[in-house]
Design a protein that fits this description.
Elements lengths: L1 H4 L1 H9 L16 H11 L3 H13 L1 H7 L1 H7 L1 H5 L3 H13 L6 H16 L9 H12 L13 H10 L2 H15 L4 H16 L10 H12 L5 H8 L14 H4 L5 H4 L1 H11 L11 H11 L7 H11 L2
Helix pairs in contact: 2-4, 4-8, 5-6, 9-10, 10-12, 12-13, 12-14, 13-15, 14-15, 15-18, 18-19, 19-20
Organism: Castellaniella ginsengisoli
Protein name: DUF4020 domain-containing protein
C-alpha cells in the first residue's frame, strides 16, 4: 500500500498505461524508449527505488515473458541480493499478485522460493499462504519438457522438514482446498496426488504438532471414496490433538456419510488424535462415537471404541 500511494509508485503504475508496451510477443523485448523510464526509477535512492520495485515486481511474470534478458539484468538481482530492504520490496511485489509464475520464471526462481519459504523475511510472513500455494503448485505440476515435477519429491520433503508448523498446515489446507474444488479436472488431479504427498510427508516428531495433525485428520475425513487409502497413509503421521485444533466440520456436515461407510477407519483416526482429556474433544464427538457403533456392531467390542466411550463418560 505504501508503494501504491507513493509518487514513485504512481509513476511506475503510469508506465503500464503507455501504449508502447502493448501487444508485445514473448521474447520480443521491450522498447528501449520505454525501458529508459523503468531504469530511471530503479536508479532512484533508497525507498524511492523500493516503491518502484514493488510495482515492477508485481508485473514480473510479464517482464520475464517479454524481455527475459532485461529482467535478469535489472530486476532479478533485487530478489537475490544482499540488500534486505530491496529484497523485501521485491518479494512484496512478486507475492502481492498471488499468481504462480509461468514455467520459465518458475524454474528460474525455484531455489529462491524454496529459500524464502524456509527463511521468510519477518515483514513478509503474511505472504506464507501464497508461497505455500506456489510451491505446492510446482510440486503438483509435471514439467512438459523434463517429464519431472517442477519441485521434486526430495525437494518437497526436505522443505517440509525445514519449514515451521504454520507453513506445513498451509500446504495441507491448500491441498485439501484444491482436491475439493468443483472443477472436475482440478478435483481429480489433486485427489490423485494426495497419496504421493502424504508418502513424502515427514514422520519426525517435530512435524507431528497438534495443528498439523488436525489438518491431516481433516484432510482424511474430506477425502470421500479415497478415505481408507488416505487414512492408512495419515495414521503414521499423527500425534494427539489438543483443544481448539480439531474441529471436524466434515463429519458434522449434512449428508456426509463417511462414518457409516468406513466406521473402522473413522475410529482409527479418532483414537489416534483425541487427547486423554475428553473435555478437550470437539463438539459433537459423542454422536460420532455412537454412529460408529451403529454402523458396525462389531466395533462396539473394539478396545479403541470402548476406551473412547469410557473417557467420554468419565469427563
Amino acid at each position: 500500500m505504501e508503494a501504491l500511494n507513493s509518487p514513485t509508485g504512481k509513476i511506475a503504475q503510469a508506465l503500464f498505461n503507455d501504449p508502447r508496451k502493448d501487444n508485445l510477443n514473448r521474447n520480443q523485448g521491450l522498447p528501449s524508449e520505454w525501458l529508459v523510464h523503468a531504469e530511471a526509477l530503479l536508479a532512484l535512492p533508497n525507498d524511492l527505488r523500493r516503491h518502484a520495485i514493488v510495482i515492477l515486481f508485481h508485473n514480473l511474470n510479464w517482464f520475464f515473458a517479454v524481455d527475459p534478458k532485461w529482467t535478469e539484468q535489472y530486476l532479478l538481482p533485487a530478489i537475490q541480493g544482499n540488500d534486505t530492504d530491496d529484497r523485501d520490496a521485491a518479494w512484496s511485489g512478486f507475492l502481492w499478485g498471488a499468481r504462480t509464475p509461468n514455467r520459465e520464471l518458475y524454474m528460474r526462481l525455484k531455489n529462491d522460493m524454496l529459500e524464502f519459504a524456509a527463511n521468510p523475511l519477518p515483514s513478509r510472513r503474511s505472504y506464507g499462504e501464497i508461497i505455500a500455494g506456489m510451491i505446492l503448485a510446482g510440486w503438483g505440476t509435471v514439467d512438459s519438457v523434463t517429464g519431472e515435477r517442477r519441485i521434486s519429491n526430495d525437494e518437497m520433503h526436505s522443505l517440509l522438514l525445514t519449514v515451521d508448523d504454520e507453513f506445513r498446515s498451509r500446504v495441507l489446507w491448500q491441498a485439501q482446498r484444491w482436491s475439493d474444488e468443483k472443477n472436475e479436472n482440478s478435483h481429480k488431479r489433486w485427489r490423485g496426488q494426495l497419496p504421493e504427498l502424504l508418502q513424502i510427508w515427514p514422520r519426525q516428531l517435530s512435524a507431528r504438532s497438534p495443528n498439523t495433525s488436525a489438518r491431516l485428520c481433516e484432510l482424511a475425513f474430506s477425502s470421500g471414496d479415497e478415505f481408507p487409502t488416505i487414512t492408512a497413509l495419515v495414521l503414521p503421521l499423527l500425534g494427539r490433538i489438543e483443544r481448539d485444533h480439531l474441529m471436524l466440520p466434515e463429519l458434522r456436515r449434512s449428508g456426509n456419510n463417511i462414518v457409516n461407510r468406513y466406521p473402522e477407519q473413522a475410529l482409527a483416526l479418532l483414537h489416534a488424535v483425541l487427547p486423554d482429556n475428553a473435555l478437550a474433544w470437539p463438539y459433537g464427538i459423542e454422536g460420532i462415537l455412537k454412529q460408529i457403533g451403529e454402523a458396525s456392531s462389531a466395533l462396539n467390542r473394539d478396545d479403541r471404541l470402548i476406551s473412547l466411550k469410557q473417557r467420554w463418560d468419565a469427563r
